[in-house]
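Task card 7
Instruction: Convert sequence to structure tokens.
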Amino acid sequence: MAFPVSRPHPPILIGGGGERKTLRMVAQYADACNLFPSPELPHKLDVLRDHCKALGRNYDEIEKTAMFSFDVGENGEKVGQVIGGLRWLAGMGIQTVIGSVPRIDRIKPLEIIGEKVIPAVASLEASAAGATR
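Output:
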């Protein structure tokens, strides 16, 4: 089966937080970047913003993504931490999270994510978009 190629090229996502090379390459070539949700995230986004400015690139054209662990705990004891983490990321301008769920073989954490986390963060998309403008 053949897949059509996007024109002018398939979207490019570059992951990593190297300030001199990786984030410069994001500013120059990427449609999206993937970062880690660490305390350095605001600084990394500022570095990316500076690279964009130096290259004449619109920072807002780059989709910002981050890795994230949806670890709500066995019985939902960490739901507040997960929701807080997602709100923090949205406030930084992260538009998409690439998530993992520990112990995917257990149904209860998945149900908790569906019942408590998703409804609590469903409106964050608009907040994230507003944070980058």
